[in-house]
Amino acid sequence: MTDIDPQDLAARYVALWNEPDPDLRREAIHELWAEGGAHILHPPQEIRKIAAELGFDSSTLEARGHERIEVRVSRSHERFVASGQVSFRPQDNAVLLHDIVRFNWDTVPAGGGEAVGGGLEILVLDENGRIAVDYMFPG
Fold it and tell me: Which domain of life is it from (predicted)?
């Protein structure tokens, strides 16, 4: 794991969410995530409230496997990036500790500028340096 550049991994991860080409997004997902990897989102309060009202466990939202992660990334891209609302950029604070990479990311207006949001990402890597579990905490 020591040969992994955590800032490079963070940059490739965030670039995936901004990628307009569905084929390149799919390719990046296969490169970044292990086959059975998971993306686990700690949803914002308003989503947790709606899910709880519908009788769902609202503490997390999970996508497991390349196909489900692709759906998750694609829908996020369509809603936020392709719509022209925002784009995402990594902060310059990625660190690697054993098999864990931690970094923050910013949500910025589509034209650039100051962050209007962001979050914390914690990636648990497998023995091949691919994402086994991705914990996302938007904030």
Answer: Bacteria
